[in-house]
Write a structure and sequence with these properties.
It is found in: Golgi apparatus membrane. Helices cover 62% and strands 8% of the residues. It is an alpha/beta fold. Helix 6 (225-233) links the parallel strand 1 and strand 2 (242-248).
Length: 672
Amino acid sequence: MPGKEMTTNPVVVTIENPSVEIDFSNSNTNSSFFSDKQKASSPKQFTWVLVIKAYRALYYLALGMKATFLSAKKRILLSEVSQEEEEEARTRGKLYRFIRAFLAISMVALVIEIVAHYKEWNLGLIHNPWEIMGLVQWSYMAWLSFRVDYAAPTLIMLSNLCIVLFMVQSIDRVVQCIGCFWIKCKGLKPELVGGEEEDASDVEDGSRFPMVLVQIPMCNEGEVYDQSIGAACELDWPKDRFLVQVLDDSDDENIQNLIRNEVWSWKQKGVNIIYRHRFLRTGYKAGNLKSAMACDYVKDYEFVTIFDADFQPSPDFLKRTVPHFKGNPELGLVQARWIFVNKDENLLTRLQNINLCFHFEVEQQVNGMYLNFFGFNGTAGVWRIKALEDSGGWLERTTVEDMDIAVRAHLNGWKFIFLNDVRALCELPESYMAYKKQQHRWHSGPMQLFRLCLPDILHSKMSMGKKFNLIFLFFLLRKLVLPFYSFTLFCVILPLTMFIPEAELPLWVVCYVPIFMSFLNILPSPKSFPFLIPYLLFENTMSVTKFNAMVSGLFQLGSSYEWVVTKKTGRASESDLVALGERESMNTGQEKLTRRLSESGLETLRKEKVEAVPVAKKQNMIYRKELALAFLLLTAAGRSLLSAHGMHFYFLLFQGLAFLAVGLDLIGEQIN
């Protein structure tokens, strides 16, 4: 029996224990059993998951790179030198030759640096010049000596200057943002003199409506003329108290006939509207406006409002702007804000929207609230005609006639206000060529004007504070310093420091401060936060165009006098405008825009335009200046990789790719 007990007990224990552990144990022991297995298998599973995700990421990245490469290859093979490209070639000049020379030297330097890196040449280990073997090594050692003694000190001095300018401009922008934040917190806005109730009763009395002249200058605006004319004719103002002037500079007879017919159709409906056409387009927009203001009947009008051909003011535009002039005889200009019907059309329009939202929300609003001065935007504004006449009227001496008249009016003591809640719909340029031409004019014109206005500013009777604001902040810091340091610091000095490490830029200059400033710029358009990094890279990419324009305007080069009408696409259809207007009204608490139909019939006009106006063949282009800078920055990125610079490498890499995308015209409107 004892033997049997000894033989059976182990069997019972052996059989029962597993059964107890597996089938009848509590939840704690069961979970611990499976957790051990899971712990054993989870590292392998996790590794496989990572491998699969990495494979998918690489697969989609390869597909994207392949598509980009094929697009770039097709763009290069099919590119032709059009008239616009020939004009671009004439304006490249010395800057383009400088970039090409810089690129060639950098590529040679990179090859030498690669050879030196792998052969481990070190100047500190060579004590006898006879130890140097070969011409390449001797050239490299001579370059190291020259770099330490001469190149590095000069580059450090230049980089310090640019860093100082960068920080001063950044401080100016931070101060403006603080001013905008204060306006938002306190709910500050321009108030009507005499109160809103008195003004509202005044508006209801038709006999007290002032006479308003509405001007629509245009030139070959075949895509959008009907929208601006229709919007101006439906302004909520007594028909006998305003006149619409359609100022047509078109040289296309088909477009002239279409505009003339549109004007005639509105005239048949009882609208006080006239059509004016100039045979000679002298003075461009300024000459057009000057010619219109010379008409005898203008003396009967007290105010003039200007709308470019793609602008669609809401019907209550005059009722919300003109009353601010009442009881304020020193007020010369009321400027409204722009909103864009095609801001989500492509990446280029999204990035433009960020810039212009900051311009209106921060720059214009802050300067208007605290200084009563800002640059007139050329459209969507109401002028007191007496202020225009007192300031000398429209002059044809620059390509920024709007800024010119604003500065002269400011010198004569007139005040401006900006209404951020009054908005006019308009259109952004969708192609990079159109945007580039626009930016060239916007950045060369102010430098032309600065040369012409500086003596008048110095001899004016304004206070020293206003002179300081006009000269150092308005012109020098925001119009000259900004494009200068953007191009010099990030497109010239930063690549150079990769080959001259003694002058390496600190990380906060390359990364932290630019990202913070881009963050501030994007605050007025919070939906654009996903485009923070593309915006930063694109702004640096545009610095070459802005720098070139600034130099041509400052030294009065031939390209500074070019005026190219920004091309419109006519995407602002009636339904698009109403839908966007209603969305903006809901966001701002305004009343919805009333729906309106073009009096001549939109469908009929679309057909007429297709039949009558020949459509010019469009194509994407290649921009050699941007491509040269792309290869320069990528070359510098290769040198940075040898030195393991980290963040400098990534910045140069992505900035070079941004230049490459712009140079191949892969941003903006894509034409099949």
